[in-house]
Amino acid sequence: MSSKSVTHPHGNRSQVMRRFTWTAAAILLIGTLSFLGIADEVMEGGTVHLDERILMAMRVQGNPDQPIGPAWLQEAFRDFTGLGGTGVLGLLSIATLGYLWLMGMRRAALHLIIAIVGGLLVSLALKAGFHRPRPDLVSHGSMVYTSSFPSGHSMLSAIVYLTGGAMLALLHRRRMVRLYLLACAVLATVLVGISRVYLGVHWPTDVLAGWAIGAAWAALCWLIAQRIGTRDLPDTDASTASFQPGPGSPTTRS
Predict the structure, then answer these.
(1) Were 84 and a residue from 106, 157, 185, 205 both cysteine, which residue would form a disulfide, CB within 3.0 to 4.6 Å?
(2) Is 202 a catalytic residue?
(3) 49 annotated active-site
(4) Of 3, 8, 216, 2, nearest to 119 (Cα)?
(5) How far is CA 165 from CA 2, 79, 112, 172, 218, in A?
(6) Given this model, what pLDDT does residue 229 score?
(7) Which region holds residue 245: left if phi is over 0, alpha if psi is between -120 and 50, else beta?
(8) Is 36's pLDDT higher than 80?
(9) Which residues pair with 59 in a beta bridge?
(10) What pLDDT is recorded for position 141?
(11) Domains and CATH numbers, the chain
(12) Residue 108 CB burial class (10 angstroms; 0-12, 13-18, ≥19)
């Protein structure tokens, strides 16, 4: 008697991990250089006119306190900005941690905690260091508590969504599923950042810098996790795990 296992037809996990690692390295380099370039221009005042032009383009001409678009669009952008708020990101982080824990990925869960908490501390440190004032040309459509540069919502949403999205994507061998999960993570991050400018609580360069340093931090944490060996991801697809037929199974052959 011999049995054959039905395995997933797509590529092996090691190839996926290598692609993720090289992508993370590229994101770390590009994100860090982008943040440094934006920060240098901001400190020298080279982005003032561009920031003001973009910010005012999102306001009704002659009425800077009124965002462009109908009421439902304004409400939608308030919802989008909530995706990067402390409460929502905290809830999503807890949900993702619980999922990783139940999947037996304890070290991956610890890695996610370190990435998020560390990112929060980095965000607060950068805000304190640059201490850039919030936009004063328009009224604020959301409450603000800290300085402007970089955007904390943009940075933390990049960290939470991109890190969590990458971890969930690695649970699947199907390329389209991985791309879908990563696309959802990127879309959420982009919507949060745009909403901050639309609501008048951040300059556009605040958001660009937040995206850049947030993505770079997420990539750095990923690379460190790979370096120290926190690879406790399952070897099979979470939704299409390998099937081992037992005696009497229709796939068992004599």
Answers:
(1) 157
(2) yes
(3) no
(4) 216
(5) 40, 20, 11, 11, 11
(6) 56
(7) beta
(8) yes
(9) 67
(10) 65
(11) 13-43+73-228 (1.20.144)
(12) buried
Structure tokens given for 86? 């402390």
Instruction: Give the type of residue at 176.
Output: M
Judged against a pLDDT cut of 70, whether residue 125 lies above it is answered with yes
Structure tokens at 131: 């201490």
- Catalytic residue chosen out of the listed positions 10, 111, 153, 172: 153
**Is residue 116 within 8 Å of residue 97, measured between CB atoms?**
no
Is the CB of residue 97 less than 8 Å from the CB of residue 111?
Answer: no
Helix or strand run (H / E) with residue 17: helix 13-44
**Angle (deg, nearest 10), helices 13-44 and 106-130:** 10
**Would you state the pLDDT for residue 63?**
85
At 243, give phi and psi (nearest 5°).
-110, 125
Span 83-104, average pLDDT:
87
For residue range 134-186, what is the model confidence (pLDDT) as tens digits? 888 777 766 677 788 999 999 999 999 988 888 777 777 788 988 999 999 99
Cα 13 to Cα 236: distance, rounded to the nearest angstrom: 8
Choosing from 49, 111, 172, 202, which is the catalytic residue?
202
Closest CA to 16 of 234, 186, 175: 175
Q: List pLDDT tens digits, range 102-115.
A: 888 888 888 888 88
